[in-house]
Specification:
The complex is a heterodimer.
Chain A: H1 2-30, H2 33-37, H3 44-53, H4 60-72, H5 86-121, H6 126-140, H7 143-157, E1 170-172, E2 175-177, H8 182-214, H9 218-225, H10 230-268, H11 273-282, H12 286-314, H13 316-322
Antiparallel strand pairs in A: 1-2
Helix pairs in contact in A: 1-4, 1-12, 5-6, 5-8, 5-10, 5-12, 6-8, 7-8, 7-10, 8-10, 10-11, 10-12, 11-12, 12-13
Chain B: H1 2-6, H2 11-20, H3 23-40, H4 42-45, E1 67-68, E2 74-75, H5 86-122, H6 124-139, H7 142-153, H8 157-184, H9 187-194, H10 199-207, H11 212-235, H12 247-258, H13 264-291, H14 293-296
Antiparallel strand pairs in B: 1-2
Helix pairs in contact in B: 2-13, 3-5, 3-13, 5-6, 5-8, 5-11, 5-12, 5-13, 6-8, 7-8, 8-11, 9-10, 11-12, 11-13, 12-13
The chains are: A mainly alpha, B mainly alpha.
Chain lengths: 323, 297
C-alpha cells in the first residue's frame, strides 16, 4: 500500500515538473518579456540593464531552476496589470470560482439523479427516450451559447434574473459567499445552471446505467420478496449502491468544472479565476497566466491522486493490478 | 454482428441498415449530409460572398431577419454589424468550423491509432509508457490543455488544430489499444507472424481493419467534440483569428450586441452549431449501438 501511494506521489511530482517546464519554456523562453516591459524606443544600454536585472542572460537551465525555486516559495512574480503578487491575485479570486463550481455540482445531483432514476426504471419507453435524447442535447449544447441563451431568456425577455456579475456577498461562518444575500443568490443561479448542464447530462447517464445494472441483482429481488415497497427499494437500497460511482466521477469532474468555469465566467462576468485567466491572456499578463496554469494543474493532480488512493483503499483489486 | 457476417453483409451496409432502422438517427444523418454539402458548396449557394467588400453594403448593417436592404436583396436571417448577410456568413462559418473540426478529428485519429496499435502490438515498456501518457491526457479537461497549448504557441488555425489533436488523440489510442490487444492474440495474427510478414503490415493490414468499428464511433463523437471545442476557444478569443470566421467567432461577435436586442447575430449561428453538433452526436450514439456486438443483440 505504501509503495503504491509513493509511486503515485512520485508520478504526480513528475507530471507537475513536466508541466512547469512546458509552461516555463512556452511563456518565458519563446516570448520575449523585454517587448512588454520596455518602451519601443529603449536604448541598447537600457535593454542590457533590464536583461541583466531580470537574469535573462543566464543559461536556460539556470533560469528554469530559479523559476522553480521561486515558484515553490509561492512567488510567481508580480502581475503586470495589478502590480501585486500573481499568486495573491489568484487566491483572492478562487473562492468565487469554487462557489460557482460547488453550486453546479449540487444542482447536477438534485436534477440529474431523479431524471436518471425515471429513465432507468422505465427502459425503452417514451420517458426514457426523451430523457436520454435530452441528455445528448445537454452534451451537445455548446456551453457558451447555452449561457447566452439563458441570459437572453431569463434576463432580457423575462427580466427575472440579473445577467452578469456576482452581486452582493455576505459572510456565513467567516466565509464570504453569495448565499448570504438574496441579491447574491439570484446572481448565482444563471451561471451555476450554465456550468451544471453538461454535468446534469452526465449524472443522468450514470444514474440510468447504475439503476439498470442494479435492478436485476439478487439483493433487490430479496428486498422485494421481503415485501418492501418498490419506492423504498429504489430510494434506499438501489440509491445507496449507485451513489458510489456517481460521487467518484463527480469528484474527478470537480477539477474539470474549475477549468470549464473559464467559459461560464467570461459570459456572466463572474469575478473568478476563469475570467481572470482570459483577461490575463489578452493583456499578456504572463505571471498570472503561469501561476494560474500551475495552480490549477496542481489542484488537478492532487484531486486525481486522492481519488486514486481512496479507490485503492476501498477496492483492493485496483491495488494489485497497479503493482 | 456474426449474423451480419454470415449474411455476407459489408460494414457499410450494416451501418446504413442500422441508421435507417431508427427514425431519429435517419433524420440526424440526413441533417449531417445536408450541412456538410452546403458547407462544401457555400460559395455557390450563399446569397452573397460575405467577405467580398464589393458585395456588402454598410447601409444594410444590423437589419433584422426578413428585411429588404438597399441593394434590393432580402436578408432571410438579417445582417451583422457590417451589413453582411447572416445566412451567407453562417454558411462560410460552417465551412470553417467543419474544416477545422474534421481535420483535427482525422489527425487525432491517425496519431492515436498509430500509438494505440504500437502499444498493443509491442507491449511491455512501450505499452506502459504510451498508456501512462494516455491516462495523463484523459485526466485533464480538454479546455485546460487547449488553453495551455494556445498560450504557449499563440493563435492561428494550425495552432487550434494542434491543440485539438493534442487533447483528442488519447481517446483513439485507448480504444484502438483495447481492441488490438484482443486481436493480436487471435490465430490469424499469429499465423501472419509465422509467415514472417513484417510487423508494420500485420498491424496496418491485418489488425487495424478489425479495430475499425470502435474507431468509427469514436471518430464521429470526437469530430463533434472538436467542432464544439473550436467554437468555444474562438468565442473566448483565443482560437481562430478574425480572418477565419468560424461559427464560434460569429457567435462571439453577435454576443456583443445581443443585450441590445439584436438577437439574430448570435442566436442563428448558435442554433446552426447546436444542430450540427447534436446531429453528429445522435449519429455517433446510434453507430455505437450498431457496431457494439454486446449492444447489438
Amino acid at each position: 500500500m505504501t509503495v503504491f501511494i509513493l509511486r503515485r506521489v512520485l508520478q504526480a511530482i513528475l507530471v507537475l515538473a513536466i508541466t512547469s517546464l512546458v509552461v516555463f519554456l512556452g511563456v518565458y523562453a519563446i516570448g520575449d518579456p523585454l517587448e512588454i516591459l520596455l518602451p519601443a524606443d529603449a536604448s541598447m544600454a537600457e535593454r542590457a540593464q533590464v536583461t541583466a536585472s531580470l537574469h535573462l542572460d543566464d543559461p536556460l537551465a539556470l533560469q528554469y531552476w530559479n523559476f522553480i525555486v521561486q515558484a515553490l516559495q509561492g512567488n510567481f512574480g508580480r502581475s503586470f496589470v495589478f502590480n501585486r503578487p500573481a499568486l495573491e491575485v489568484i487566491f483572492e479570486r478562487l473562492p468565487a470560482t469554487l462557489e460557482l463550481v460547488t453550486t453546479s455540482l449540487i444542482l447536477s445531483l438534485i436534477i440529474g439523479i431523479p431524471l436518471g432514476f425515471l429513465a432507468g426504471t422505465r427502459p425503452r419507453t417514451v420517458t426514457d427516450e426523451t430523457i436520454m435524447t435530452g441528455s445528448i442535447l445537454g452534451f451537445s449544447l455548446p456551453n457558451f451559447w447555452q449561457g447566452m441563451m439563458l441570459i437572453m431568456i431569463f434576463s432580457v425577455w423575462l427580466g427575472w434574473l440579473p445577467s452578469t456579475g456576482r452581486g452582493d456577498t455576505g459572510t456565513i461562518l467567516g466565509v464570504r459567499t453569495s448565499y448570504a444575500t438574496w441579491d447574491g443568490f439570484v446572481h448565482l443561479l444563471l451561471p451555476a445552471t450554465n456550468l451544471a448542464l453538461a454535468q446534469i447530462a452526465l449524472v443522468i447517464r450514470l444514474t440510468r446505467t447504475g439503476v439498470q445494472e442494479t435492478m436485476p441483482l439478487d439483493f433487490v429481488k430479496y428486498a422485494r420478496a421481503r415485501g418492501i415497497s418498490e419506492r423504498r427499494i429504489l430510494s434506499v437500497h438501489v440509491f445507496k449502491t449507485i451513489l458510489i460511482p456517481i460521487v467518484t466521477v463527480l469528484g474527478i469532474e470537480f477539477g474539470s468544472l474549475i477549468a470549464f468555469a473559464v467559459v461560464t465566467e467570461t459570459i456572466f462576468a463572474w469575478p473568478g479565476v476563469g475570467k481572470l485567466i482570459i483577461d490575463s491572456i489578452n493583456m499578456l499578463d504572463r505571471p498570472i497566466v503561469v501561476a494560474y496554469i500551475l495552480v490549477i494543474v496542481s489542484m488537478f493532480i492532487v484531486i486525481n491522486l486522492v481519488v486514486d488512493v481512496l479507490y485503492s483503499l476501498l477496492d483492493p483489486r485496483i491495488r494489485s493490478r497497479a503493482s | 454482428m456474426i449474423a451480419a457476417r454470415i449474411r455476407g453483409e459489408s460494414m457499410g451496409a450494416r451501418i446504413a441498415r442500422g441508421l435507417l432502422s431508427s427514425p431519429k438517427a435517419t433524420i440526424a444523418a440526413i441533417i449531417c449530409v445536408v450541412l456538410i454539402t452546403s458547407a462544401i458548396l457555400a460559395p455557390l449557394i450563399a446569397p452573397q460572398n460575405p467577405y467580398d467588400l464589393t458585395e456588402i453594403d454598410f447601409f444594410d448593417a444590423k437589419l433584422p431577419p426578413m428585411s429588404e436592404g438597399y441593394t434590393g436583396m432580402t436578408y432571410l436571417l438579417g445582417t451583422d454589424g457590417q451589413g453582411r448577410d447572416m445566412l451567407s456568413a453562417m454558411l462560410y462559418g460552417l465551412r470553417t468550423s467543419l474544416a477545422v473540426g474534421v481535420t483535427a478529428g482525422l489527425l487525432a485519429m491517425m496519431v492515436g491509432t498509430a500509438l494505440g496499435l504500437v502499444a498493443a502490438y509491442r507491449g511491455g515498456v512501450i505499452d506502459s509508457f504510451i498508456m501512462r501518457f494516455v491516462d495523463l491526457m484523459l485526466g485533464f479537461p480538454t479546455i485546460l490543455v487547449a488553453l495551455m497549448i494556445l498560450v504557449v504557441f499563440g493563435q492561428g488555425v494550425d495552432k487550434v488544430i494542434l491543440a485539438l489533436v493534442f487533447v483528442q488523440w488519447a481517446y483513439f489510442a485507448r480504444a484502438v489499444r483495447a481492441t488490438a490487444m484482443v486481436e493480436t492474440g487471435k490465430e490469424y495474427a499469429e499465423a501472419a507472424r509465422c509467415l514472417g510478414i513484417p510487423a508494420w503490415r500485420i498491424m496496418g493490414g491485418h489488425i487495424l481493419p478489425n479495430c475499425l468499428p470502435p474507431l468509427i464511433v469514436i471518430a464521429t463523437i470526437q469530430v463533434a467534440g472538436a467542432i464544439a471545442a473550436e467554437a468555444t476557444l474562438s468565442f473566448l478569443g483565443i482560437g481562430l483569428p478574425i480572418t477565419e470566421p468560424s461559427l464560434g467567432l460569429l457567435i462571439a461577435n453577435g454576443y456583443q450586441v445581443m443585450l441590445a436586442g439584436l438577437y439574430w447575430m448570435s442566436v442563428y449561428p448558435g442554433l446552426l452549431l447546436l444542430v450540427l453538433v447534436f446531429s453528429v452526436n445522435i449519429v455517433g450514439d446510434r453507430l455505437r449501438e450498431i457496431l457494439n456486438p454486446r449492444l447489438a443483440q
